[in-house]
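Our consortium's second objective concerns turning raw sequence data into structural hypotheses that experimental partners can test. To show how far this objective has progressed, the report includes one record in full. It was chosen at random from the queue rather than selected for favorable results. The single chain below, 192 residues long, was entered without modification.
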Amino acid sequence: MSVSELKTYKGRYIVFGVFVTVAVLFFVIPFFMTLFMFKAYFIPTGAMEDTLLIGDHIFMKRIICGSINRGDVVIFRPPHDEDKDYIKRCIAVGGNTFEIRNDKVYLNNKPLDEPYVKGATKPYDFGPGGPLIDGIVPNGKIVVLGDNRENSQDSRHFGYLEEKAVKGKAVLIYWNTKKIAESGFSHMGFIK
């Protein structure tokens, strides 16, 4: 092999190495991040209106380590229906005092400011043996409620939710064909 052939041969390896590096950085790493850190969901019901609308496509960030905070919009499997994923807002965490009184949520004995709520917050009375969520939330459990309080199956139906049942936090609305047609991209963005 001559010196010029060797330089051409090395040049091809350098070009190939750059190509592989670019492919890994721009395709392989994002693919695995999406596969293991994020998951896409479609919103089929109005239980979280007006925060999330029917037809919204969202990304959920998986909870690998860390905690769930009050106000997070979480995706989970409820204890009464372990074949479906639900999406609700975390209202209270372990150690908080939670109560529904006069159609309002009281957290640590103070009315909670909830500008995202649609409808009145009514407690459900299931009678003896029904879920009870008033009082101090046990450690390792949370209270979840839908933002559309009059159209949501949430902790008022199934009681406290185990933190370990939470799959992740909803973080981004990335598409809704109907809303884009109506109002442009104003509904897209981070979930609050």
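The partners drew two points from this record. The chain has three helices and twelve strands. The longest helix spans residues 3-37. Both points have been shared with the crystallography group to help prioritize constructs.
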